Amino acid sequence: MNDQKKSQGFETLSIHAGCAPDPATGARVTPICQNTSYVFDSAEHAANLFALKETGYIYSRLTNPTVMALEQKIAALEGGAGATCTSSGHAAQMLALFALLNEGDEFIAARQLYGGSINQFKNAFPRACGWKCHFVDATEPEAFRRAITPKTRAIFIESLANPGGIVTDIRAIANVANEAGVPLIVDNTMATPYLCRPFEHGAHIVTYSTTKFLSGHGNSLGGALVDSGSFNWLGHADKYPALAQPEPGYHGLNFAETFGPMALTFHGHAVGLRDLGCCQQPMNAFLTLTGMETLALRMERHCRNAQAVAEFLETHSKVKWVQYAGLKESRFRSLAQTYLRDGMAGSVFTFGLKGGFEAGVQLVESVKLISHLANIGDTRSLVIHPASTTHAQLTDEQRESAGAGPDVIRISVGLETVADIIADLDQALSG
Question: Which residues make beta-bridge pairs with 223?
Fold first, then answer.
């Protein structure tokens, strides 16, 4: 980014970063480049692109103009060196670890994660890739230090944990990662760069499910991997051969030596997307670009509505507890003040019902305005019972650790008139 963009405000970057007028047509809105491949200027031009001596477009599995505009926008909002967009949030996690781990390597992850991430880390990665994950309590930074082994290659956390809305002490865990000489990866999906910028607190890599708040309208799948450019890959070349040792697929090119702070970004495109094929589609990138133009406005309303809904639920006779960092009595309130813009605690949180599992099922079947489905970050309010859905594949102990016990309801508070959201919850709880 140039100095002017670095000084521009969040709202300005949300609209303009990565999205200059189209030079060919003058179109002000970024065009949808629904295209597979690109004509080369000459044989030399083609050869240079394939050898990574020049940047440009070869094939849309690797790079696409619409997707690149989204990558530039996300990198600008995060304050990162570069970004790689993927087909989903899970694909972004795969792409990040694909560059960092070899068979037999290990990484540490918070227990308080989205259930699909726990399943991916616990079952799919060991079976398919030979990577072992150690899970620890995200609320205890020292637990990460105790879990470090000589084979540890990364630490993975969520800034705001899904489903519980737990605020993670990023700086404390980043200190552990730095001492161990490994990168800290932060899934910032629930907070978005509007509420939290993990690089400012010591994180090295950020991942997203762009499907959620960045897109914001429940109409497009995608993920993103953002690199801060701050990790010294060459200083740990023995741990990270894919980035800091010769790459056989490019005649011995060393990504860290050649591309410096952009090493992980170039590797994500030139090797990760090339070999894994998990590229984001241009139409999804276009929809996400459109959604991000109003990210600041939406996040403020999401948070304001969520605060009011949490305060209502806190006093309801059928509700046993509410876990929302915006509440004065929340154990995570001080962390929210430290890491989240103006202490706004996001729009996704959990609450427990006095009637347990059966009451949870009854509530999701009784809402009328609120949609019962498996997503978050939509303009619409959404609700789910994690124990019977998103976290059903986990053991009872894993569900409890992840904040998805039998009585738990997860709500993603949308942008409707807040009185209407509260009225729908009230009638569902009273049924």
Answer: 86, 209
